[in-house]
Design brief:
Elements (H helix, E strand, L loop, with lengths): L2 H17 L10 E2 L4 H6 L3 H6 L1 H14 L4 E2 L8 H6 L5 E2 L6 E2 L12 H6 L1 H13 L8 H33 L5 E6 L2 H21 L1 H22 L8 E6 L7 H21 L4 E5 L7 H4 L7 E5 L4 H8 L4 E6 L1 H6 L2 H15 L5 E5 L11 H14 L3
Parallel strand pairs: 1-2, 5-6, 6-7, 7-8, 8-9, 9-10
Antiparallel strand pairs: 3-4
GO biological process, one term: porphyrin-containing compound biosynthetic process
Protein name: Uroporphyrinogen decarboxylase (URO-D) domain-containing protein
GO molecular function, one term: uroporphyrinogen decarboxylase activity
């Protein structure tokens, strides 16, 4: 085995030990570098979307300049060219980072839940997609089909290039990207993000929680099938990824009624197949620890954005690996000495017993999210100080 592949296996083993709640040889350090890589390398988002070689070179630079054990994503994280081939969406790719151009995402009326629940595929295909995308709204059937085929081609190209990028990071740098392509929000998040928007779903949770829960249940069955279609078999170096948005805004009893059943159903099904799951718990989840501590043990890498990680480790440390701790505000605006003090405290308090991975509290998007000298200092310090 080559030196690069030996390094790859060593990094994968270190991260898996932490997820399975064992002490690895040292605390793993993971990258959540997103569009920050583009400004660090010196190209724009538009450049990266047009040229996958430039994208590869841009993301390779921070992956090799800093002492990371791997990354959660290894390139531009959203298929923007696919979205634009459908006639546009809510994203603007003319900016330095991925930006949402409009917050308006209410596509379905509150009176249409029954149609969604009765036959979600038919309702999405025949009603919601034509309502959302311009390519289905004008021209002949042949013209619509041609544009749709082009859009599918753009999506497949995105999928194929993600796989190519991961393989090159592995072969050329011994660097794992732990994304198996099965990425999703949860079913209730999808209703908020794509169908009802924030205001709509918050009203629905008050007025018709049973409909929200039932719709979430039928949608999660589709998501489970999609996950197994994308990733039929588990792999030590590839994880399913979930991005959870809604629970931070709802109370525990609302979570239990509308969100938890479909979320738990998904996690049980996917981990039952042998997959590990990376879950990004957005904002603060402290009010929901009593639920998520019942998730499967040793199968989940939980990234926490605003939680007190010491509290999270005490409450959830026997269930999942806790990840986070490096605040982008400190990395971007703090001193080197302050950043090192923070990392030392995190390792002192959270490393004993395993089940801790050091990473940023959120993805690094803009240049202000981290000074390179701060990022270099903390990753090099963790490499030495984080040994068990």
């Amino acid at each position: 085995m080559s030196e690069k592949l030996n390094l790859y296996e060593e990094r994968v083993r270190r991260v898996n030990d932490a997820i399975e709640l064992r002490e690895p040889d040292r605390v793993p350090v993971l990258s959540q570098i997103d569009n920050w890589a583009l400004s660090y390398y010196g190209i724009t988002l538009e450049n990266a979307l047009k040229d996958v070689e430039q994208e590869y070179q841009a993301y390779s630079k921070p992956f090799t300049d800093f002492s990371f054990d791997g990354a959660i994503f290894g390139g531009v994280t959203f298929p923007l060219n696919f979205v634009y081939s459908l006639g546009g969406g809510i994203y603007n790719n003319k900016m330095d980072t991925i930006q949402i151009a409009t917050g308006h995402a209410e596509l379905m009326g509150a009176d249409e839940y029954d149609l969604l629940i009765a036959d979600p595929i038919k309702f999405i295909r025949d009603t919601l997609l034509p309502r959302k995308h311009k390519i289905f709204q004008e021209g002949t059937v042949q013209e619509k089909f041609s544009k749709y085929a082009q859009a599918v081609g753009a999506f497949m190209q995105y999928v194929q290039t993600r796989g190519m990028l991961s393989e090159r990071y592995k072969q050329e740098h011994g660097f794992p990207v732990f994304n198996n392509g099965a990425c999703s929000c949860m079913a209730t998040d999808a209703i908020m993000n794509y169908l009802r928007d924030f205001k709509g779903i918050m009203q629905d949770i008050k007025r018709c929680p049973e409909k929200v829960a039932e719709a979430s249940d039928v949608l999660v069955d589709l998501m489970i099938k999609k996950t197994f279609g994308t990733a039929p078999q588990p792999a030590d170096d590839r994880y399913v990824q979930l991005f959870l948005h809604l629970p931070q805004f709802i109370r525990a009893r609302e979570f239990e009624k509308v969100y938890w059943p479909s979320f738990k159903k998904y996690v049980d099904a996917v981990t039952g197949r042998g997959h590990k799951i990376v879950i990004l718990f957005e904002k603060n989840w402290e009010h929901l620890y009593e639920y998520i501590q019942d998730l499967p043990k040793g199968k989940i890498l939980g990234f926490f954005e605003e939680d007190d990680l010491r509290k999270a480790k005490r409450a959830l440390g026997k269930t999942m690996c806790i990840a986070g701790g490096l605040k982008t505000n400190d990395l971007g605006y703090g001193t080197r000495e302050h950043c090192l003090d923070v990392v030392k405290g995190l390792i002192d308090d959270l490393a004993p017993g395993g089940g801790f991975i050091l990473t940023t509290d959120k993805g690094l998007m803009s240049p202000n999210d981290a000074k390179p000298e701060n990022l270099r200092a903390v990753t090099e310090f963790a490499l030495q100080y984080g040994s068990y």
